[in-house]
Fold this protein.
Amino acid sequence: MQYTSLGRTALKVSRLCLGTMNFGSQTTEEDSHAIMDEALDKGINFWDTANRYGGKAGAGGTEKIIGRWLAKDKSRRDRVVLATKVYGDMSSDNWPNYRGLSAKSIRIAVEDSLRRLQTDYIDLYQFHHVDRDAPWEEIWQALEQLVQAGKVLYVGSSNFAGWHIAKANEAAKKRNYMGLVSEQSLYNLAARTIELEVIPACEDYGLGLIPWSPLAGGLLGGVLQKIESGRRASERIQKRIEAHRDQIQAYEDFCQELGASPAVVALAWMLENPVVTAPIIGPRTMEQLTSAYDALELHLDADAMQKLDEIWPGPGGTAPEAYAW
């Protein structure tokens, strides 16, 4: 396994991040535990979850599955860099302070996550979304207290715009506080908007980028090959296929030339970007987990990167040059 620092911190995390959103919704608890066993055995030490995840198990269900796995062997906890999130509505009867980023909401959410995860600290506590009603003075005061209490080690964001990152970290700087160390964004070959401003903000403020949906919901996972072999695509995926069929076909043909699966190429493309800490792989099955390992060994040269850029063009660079002079 390969490891790197999370942004400007000294924290070492694996180049692949185990996403757990499917645990409890599409993957049984038994299979989820087996996937975590395999990931840890292969050296993946970076786990991502959120208090809202759970699917059929209900909000918080995924954290409970992880907690029961951690409880099986107490030595696992310090080997894993555990990341979870706060923001989503956790109330079953619409109480107002069970969502958002007020100091009270954060306090309630972190205590609940710690209880479900069966741990006394969270390595990376991430804001799942920006809360436009919460002032940063309030947010950072709440997080400083949690860090001082040893309940949170690092703080990250998710789904932030570039200016949100700047605003958050400038407010933290005034308090002599470390601020955000990572950003989790939608990013893949088919969705490159964050190259305009989010990635430059991450570079400037020293945030590690943790891309979610690196396979574009399956679009970059060899979807045409799977359909040809007899597998059916959902109606949602089918619509996206029809909108991008020519690009997908060109992409899958090029992956065949490279001698690698489309999913592996999509992950390897991200790993070539020095701002990317680790793409989040969210396996439903053991096969999906183990197939991702090959991305660590695939190096894409300049010609391959240029070809992928031609098939899946980005916004044209960073702002403002991408749309102005």
Summary: The two ends are 42 Å apart (CA to CA). Residues 3-219+263-301 form a domain with the TIM Barrel fold (CATH 3.20.20.100). The first strand starts at residue 3 and ends at 5. The CA atoms of residues 288 and 302 lie 27 Å apart.
